[in-house]
Specification:
It holds the Pfam family DUF475. It comes from Hoeflea marina. This is DUF475 domain-containing protein. By secondary structure, the protein is an all-alpha fold. It has one domain. Helix 1 runs antiparallel to helix 2 and helix 7 packs across helix 11. The longest helix has 36 residues. It is globular, with a radius of gyration of 21 Å.
């Protein structure tokens, strides 16, 4: 029951969101069946977002540990507003506005008056979004494993080799570029051009965020005299959250073409991600479960490859979510086994007296 306090705001958002979704269904259809359908879709979208975001919460928690308390608070307040309103409402509208060559207000009107056309434009933008987001997430995942200082390995026979060659400059970029080219050769010429163009922008965005984050945090450290992440880490987490959201936002249109229903369902899920992140940080869960973070980053790499593959075949978001959650579940199970085998190294236990 103690953990329930972390989900108070998420529970409130669930109640408010489901009530609002039901009201939208009643206004749109004028029937109880229509209201119930909207309620069901909002609930399914929320569950979908949560299932796709276990790894997001874990990675957020890992990064938040390095941030100052004030920037932690800013991410968990401003960041969630950006995640809910920016990625779930503004982002789809921006995609449609750019793709259709119309203004933002015209995009809103299109979403309200012609939801089928709005959904069609969003769906047609899937290759660009998947290539961009998949590339960014691939760089995030590889950055965790290509680390010369990494001395804890879960899948030992792979992770030890990756850590060993991490000292080679540009190895992650090389691997991502090879993967980009390999996937593009499986697509037709026009789709391949779109894929490569968007994937390159994803790579540039990751490198730009890394460079800008380092500069911003270095400046802050010089002023405050502390070696903790601030604005740069905040920016990194916001772009990372956006990349995680791409898959869910696009997949949501398979269930509903109503922008506001999608925003409600995914927004509820985003609140649970925030709650899980806070719980993981305050309870020190990542330090208690040795391989949990590893499982999250393997899930990120899997999601990146799946997003690439979705440019060729449709992969249901349910499968994506279950696969990522499964990897994290196995990592958690491995961590529990390790704790039982090595109780003297469990950080949750008090240190032995000298």
């Amino acid at each position: 029951m103690a953990n329930c306090k972390y989900f108070t705001w998420a529970f409130l958002a669930t109640i408010l969101g489901l009530v609002l979704g039901t009201w939208l269904g009643w206004k749109a259809t004028g029937t109880l069946a229509g209201a119930g359908q909207f309620l069901f879709i909002c609930a399914v979208l929320a569950v979908l977002e949560i299932s796709l975001s276990f790894d997001n919460a874990i990675v957020n928690a890992a990064k938040l540990k390095t941030m100052t308390p004030i920037w932690q608070h800013r991410f968990l307040t401003w960041g969630i507003l950006i995640a809910v309103f920016g990625m779930r409402i503004v982002f789809p509208l921006a995609i449609v506005a750019v793709a259709a060559g119309i203004g933002p207000f015209a995009a809103i009107a299109l979403a309200v008056e012609q939801p089928h056309e709005y959904a069609r434009i969003m769906t047609e933008s899937h290759v660009s979004i998947a290539a961009f987001g998949g590339t960014f997430l691939m760089m995030v995942g590889l950055g965790f494993f290509f680390n010369v200082e990494k001395d804890v390995h879960w899948i030992h026979w792979i992770e030890t080799h990756l850590a060993r060659i991490a000292g080679i400059k540009g190895v992650e970029v090389f691997l991502v570029l090879v993967t980009m080219v390999a996937f593009s050769r499986l697509l037709d010429a026009e789709t391949a051009r779109t894929f490569l163009h968007s994937a390159i922008y994803g790579l540039i965005t990751f490198l730009a965020v890394e460079i800008l984050g380092s500069v911003l945090d270095a400046s802050q450290q010089a002023i405050e005299g502390v070696a903790k992440g601030g604005l740069g880490a905040f920016l990194y987490l916001e772009v990372l959250d956006a990349s995680f959201s791409f898959d869910g936002v696009i997949g949501a249109f398979a269930l509903s073409q109503n922008l506001f229903v999608i925003a409600i369902g995914l927004g509820i899920g985003a609140m649970y991600v925030r709650s899980m992140t806070i719980m993981l940080v305050e309870k020190g869960t990542l330090s208690h479960y040795r391989y949990l973070e590893h499982g999250a980053f393997w899930a990120i790499l899997a999601l990146a490859v799946i997003m690439y593959a979705q440019t060729m075949v449709h992969i249901p978001e349910v499968i994506t979510g279950l696969f990522g959650a499964g990897l994290i579940g196995v990592a958690l199970w491995s961590s529990i086994r390790w704790k039982k085998a090595n109780p003297e190294e469990d950080p949750a236990l008090p240190a032995a007296a000298d």
